[in-house]
Specification:
14 strands, three-stranded antiparallel β-sheet, 477 residues
Length: 477
């Protein structure tokens, strides 16, 4: 096209547009290749990571009797895992890619399941063998359950398989069971309540010794016995074991619930044996009846402690009849305690002004320190202030990892939370021992003195009864 102003070159314009379009297409292709390369790199890296982190199991934790089957299962599942990770080279949006990931994750989960079962079995088997070698299992357990656990923990793996989820499936005389079920069953079994039996025996002996000394049980002694028994039988397993394994306890429980005609108040209390008239074992095992069984067990143990004291009193009275030393002379101790008390008063001021009012009050902590300096020496008995008793009980709770206080204290994340727990512990202590002036302690057993602190004779008897006095002769003819 011509004009007065010159020639317009449309070909040149068109050529420039094509070049720009070609350049844009090249840039777009280059970007697509970069993104595809990055995607392949990410996918390959993920695949390599999966392969590098392919699951494994500690074969040392596997019982030798199971090892050949476990190894075959490991080989099969590891091959599935390897195959899955090798198939990750496809398109990330392809369903087969997701399926391969699912296979890899499922394999890792099944390995974790198998590993967990083997570890739990190893720990439980050790505990099982220790129980068999020491206390043995309680009669409160179902014998069928004991037989099942015994057969498996004694390595009877004659017929078992491992499913796709890594669960060990056992063929037993009681039917098909998983190893998890056997492990859980073992944890539910009760050992014999040796600690509880020994604890009651010690309390009975102490009560009898006091009886032999001519010291009857006070209400404070009775309250301490019930508190100690409550702690001793806090675990349901121990309560049932004691009920089933200790001679006379089932009969005691049965008699507690019997009517005058020998029948029971509840038709559920069927007689296991019409001849001996004891409650059916299944009734005792029934969780719905636990509170009744617990109360009866505590009452039975407390009765033993009381009867121990009564037997001791009989011996004491027999000695009196024979003209043996029989009268307890606490006058010397009372005089010493009176001196300690007089030295423990402190002056306090009240009111304001130039001449405020003053009065003398007994400093109980100073008084207790005086008792500590004079008594409890060369004996197994400690004399404690209330602060010391609080700390001893607190430390005992912290050492007991299963106590709610220890668990809450461990979970406390801040100093404020711990301080709140400490304050609550102090309040609980005050509510439990509202009248305590001081305490005595033998090991973990703590007893409060709740009597009149001005009664020197009462304090003397309390210290003597708790074994804190051995310095002077207490008997006169």
């Amino acid at each position: 096209m011509y004009s007065a102003k010159g020639f317009t070159d449309y070909g040149k314009i068109l050529g420039a547009g094509l070049k720009e379009a070609v350049r844009d297409i090249a840039i777009a292709r280059e970007q697509e290749e970069k993104e595809a390369k990055a995607e392949r790199k990410q996918r390959d890296a993920f695949a390599l990571d999966l392969y590098a982190k392919r699951p494994s199991i500690n074969e040392g934790a596997v019982p030798p009797e199971m090892l050949s089957v476990v190894k075959n299962w490991l080989l099969d599942t590891r091959n599935q895992y390897n195959e899955a990770t090798q198939n990750l080279s496809g398109d990330i949006s392809d369903p087969s890619y997701r399926a391969a990931i699912d296979v890899a994750n499922k394999t890792k989960t099944s390995y974790a399941n198998l590993s967990s079962q083997m570890q739990m079995f190893k720990e439980n088997q050790k505990e099982y063998l220790e129980t068999v070698a020491t206390t043995g299992f309680s009669n409160s357990n179902n014998q069928t359950d004991i037989n099942l656990v015994s057969s498996i923990y004694n390595k009877d793996f004659s017929n078992f398989t491992i499913d796709d989820n890594g669960k060990v499936v056992l063929e037993t005389k009681q039917g098909i069971k998983t190893l998890d079920e056997v492990n859980e069953l073992f944890e539910s079994l009760n050992a014999k309540a040796i600690k509880q039996t020994q604890g009651i025996s010690a309390a009975v002996n102490e009560s009898k010794v006091n009886g032999v000394r001519g010291i009857p049980r006070s209400q404070s002694d009775i309250d301490s016995t019930y508190a100690g028994l409550g702690s001793l039988f806090a675990d349901k397993k121990n309560t049932l074991s004691y009920a089933f394994d200790t001679p006379g306890v089932k009969e005691f429980i049965s008699n507690k619930f019997k009517l005058e005609d020998g029948s029971f108040t509840d038709e559920k209390m069927d007689l296991a044996d019409k001849k001996d008239g004891t409650i059916n074992d299944e009734w005792l095992r029934n969780p719905e009846n636990y509170d009744l069984v617990y109360d009866a067990v505590i009452e039975h143990a407390a009765d033993l402690v009381q009867r121990g004291n009564e037997e001791g009193i009989k011996i004491y009275n027999a000695k009196k009849d024979e003209g043996k030393p029989d009268e307890l002379d606490l006058s010397g101790i009372s005089n010493t305690i009176d001196s300690i008390k007089k030295a423990s008063f402190t002056t306090v001021k009240s009111g304001e002004g130039v001449t405020p009012n003053t009065r003398e009050i007994l400093d109980v902590e100073r008084y207790t320190r005086g008792l500590q300096d004079e008594y409890g020496l060369d004996t197994k008995t400690d004399i404690l202030t209330t602060a010391e008793a609080l700390d001893r009980i607190k430390q005992k709770q912290l050492k007991n990892k299963q106590s709610s206080y220890a668990i809450d204290y461990k979970d406390a994340e801040t100093d404020d939370e711990k301080e709140k727990l400490d304050n609550q512990f102090i309040e609980d202590f005050k509510r439990r021992y509202p009248d305590a002036k001081f305490f005595t302690s033998i090991g973990d057993k703590i007893a409060p003195y709740n009597g009149d602190i001005n009664d020197n004779n009462a304090v003397s008897k309390f210290l003597y009864r708790k074994g804190a006095i051995n310095k002077v002769s207490l008997y006169t003819k």
